[in-house]
Write a structure and sequence with these properties.
Layout (H helix, E strand, L loop, with lengths): L6 H17 L17 E6 L2 E14 L10 H10 L7 E11 L4 E4 L16 H7 L9 E3 L5 H4 L15 E5 H7 L10 H11 L6 E4 L24
Parallel strand pairs: 4-5, 5-6, 6-7
Antiparallel strand pairs: 1-2, 2-3, 3-4
Length: about 230
């Protein structure tokens, strides 16, 4: 009987024999497991500007029902599993761009900060910035897309100290007024208002608050302002 052996099969056989010879039957790892991931930032050029995207960490939202609309439960499950994502827990990556314009360094949003309303995996923006070689005191401006706690939560540290001491802050007046309103402390929004006040009140004298309709049309919500979507919500 004649057996045809391809070059590919010979190479595979050789590699397998070599590996088993090198490792042996009782081989043990000599190096400890590291247990860490690569730094949470990505840097690229956009025209003349250098953009560094830093992560605030994974933000789990829980079951997808209610997060996705216009699709059946089976369609949502298939969409998630087809992309190797858990079908029972939506996890977002909270990313903030830091744009170096040459003469100004601008940060967009500050993540969750010390709040663990969505679990312990959020709030790593400062660590990500350090990994990217960016110091918080070098930030010239902080621009808030809107005032939900996962966007304004990292202005101060646990003691209430402002983390961006040299920055001017920019936020829509409607967002500032809504989420710092003490009258809402007795409502279901209490935890959101408490965290917003913790982060926004210390910078009220360093913030430029824009008019309700000052956000670009492309960023403006098509819906009227609501507790969860003010006009400039993204």
């Amino acid at each position: 009987m004649t057996t045809h052996v391809s070059r590919r099969s010979l190479l595979a056989l050789g590699a397998g024999l070599g590996a088993s010879t090198l490792l042996g039957g009782n081989a043990l790892a000599r190096a400890p497991k590291v247990g860490t991931q690569s730094p949470y930032f990505h840097r690229f050029m956009l025209g003349a500007a250098e953009v560094t995207v830093v992560s605030d960490g994974p933000l789990p939202l829980g079951p997808p029902k209610g997060t996705f609309t216009g699709a059946t439960d089976d369609e949502i499950k298939k969409m998630l599993t087809d992309n190797f994502l858990a079908p029972d827990n939506i996890v977002l990556e909270q990313n903030s761009p830091i744009v170096n314009m040459g003469d100004k360094l601008v940060l967009f949003d500050t993540g969750m900060g010390t709040s663990q309303a969505f679990g312990p995996t959020t709030g790593r923006q400062q660590k990500s910035m350090a990994e990217a070689g960016i110091k918080p005191e070098d930030i010239d401006a902080v621009v808030f897309s809107h005032a939900h706690i996962d966007h304004i939560g990292g202005v101060v540290d646990g003691s209430g100290k402002v983390l961006f001491p040299n920055a001017q802050f920019y936020i829509a007046q409607s967002d500032f007024d809504y989420w710092t309103d003490e009258g809402k402390l007795g409502s279901p929004l209490k935890d959101f208002v408490v965290h917003a006040r913790k982060n926004l009140m210390p910078i009220r004298d360093k913030s430029t608050r824009t008019a309700r309709n000052s956000c670009p049309a492309s960023r403006r919500s098509p819906r009227p302002a609501t507790p969860s979507a003010t006009p400039c919500s993204w």
